[in-house]
Write a structure and sequence with these properties.
The protein is α+β, with helices and mostly antiparallel strands and about 100 residues long. About 40% of the residues lie in helices and about 35% in strands. The longest helix is centred in the last third of the chain and has 23 residues.
């Protein structure tokens, strides 16, 4: 799986890249049908204290899967986004299983 990470309106962070890559590789081991992952990190001003946004788009056979979350820090945003994607992948795998 190819992983592309982009930072929008913020400085790049090697530790955040490493954390995200580690989580996506773990997801790829569980679901081997992933081709490409595009990750976008954004930072926005939010009066509630949130504003750290992570959006992940996964390419696989069929339509793309996408999820995003807005949390207090980027690590929690990554964790919640990958959790949402895992639910979508589980559903997709259940649908495709009879055809594989």
């Amino acid at each position: 799986m190819r992983i592309s990470i982009q930072f929008v309106n913020m400085l790049t962070s090697e530790s955040l890249e490493a954390y995200t890559t580690k989580k996506l590789i773990k997801l790829n081991k569980k679901y081997d049908l992933l081709i490409n992952a595009e990750v976008f990190f954004k930072k926005e001003n939010d009066p509630k204290g949130h504003g750290k946004i992570c959006k992940i788009e996964l390419s696989l056979s069929g339509p793309r899967l996408s999820a995003s979350s807005n949390e207090k820090n980027h690590e929690m945003a990554v964790k919640n986004t990958i959790s949402d994607l895992e639910k979508q992948l589980k559903k997709r795998k259940g649908i495709l299983k009879p055809y594989l």
